[in-house]
Specification:
Length: about 325
Amino acid sequence: MSAALYAISPLDGRYRSRLNGVSAYLSEYAYIKYRIRVEVEYFISLLSMSPPLPQLAAVKPESALCEKLRSIYLDFCEEDAVWVKTTEFKGGAVGGPPLATNHDVKAVEYFIKHKFNLLAAEGGVCAQLLSVKEFVHFGLTSQDINNTCYPLMMLEFYNNEYLPALTKILTTLDGYSRKWKDIPLLARTHGQAASPTKMGKEIYVFVDRLKAQIEAMEKVPFNSKFGGATGNFNAHNVAYPDRDWPEFGNALVAGLGLQRLQCTTQIEHYDNMAALFDACRRINTILIDLARDIWTYISQGLFKQKTKAGEIGSPAMPPKG
């Protein structure tokens, strides 16, 4: 509660309790965790190349080792996030560099290497990690990580939070449209009484509009940029010219559930990201229209708000529901 009192935005203050599910995908904590996930999966993909890269040949990508490596992000906790932020802004985190990196992705790289040190100390399948830890972030630029974790965060937020919530609204409205399909209603145009309609049909207008926008949004791909400093896998090709690095990148990104852009600069185009956000904007506009219509029906006495015990409205009004 104390953190909410010092929040700059109402989203993290008054409305925080309604957005707890969002923070698992779109918070600074989540951003760090997703970056680590992308880095670890990249490292595992390097280990899994066939034939193996010469410098990595001694470390076999056994399932037990991969499980240990994935535990770095699967078991990620607030203490780990503090370690990363301390390394970024102050330095001196236990097992980390003494000075601040002032670089967020570099701090993540140091964190993973720190975890490699701890895993190597356990011995067993992790014993050889010290000899290959410099392959963490090999050949990459920060935007390979950022432009892969951004769409991954949005994809999983979309599938796990946004679309289920939107589907629930759609299902509720569809149910009301069927329930009220025979209830007559005097329609209005320009605020004036017009020809008759049915309440169910007026509600279904929003069902129809939302369905169309959801269908359009479902066609927008979640793209990743993954190709080195200028999108050409330059460092990878210089180090290992006999490997098909674009195909490697395609497989890695597809394994995360994303589509890799084939021709980029240092960064992602953001075109499809913009399309996704614009679809969200249109859906918000539809929901605002719905709220205004319901507000009008209430003002006309067609609907009545339910009161909730303990809630207080305006002094000049009944308690608001």
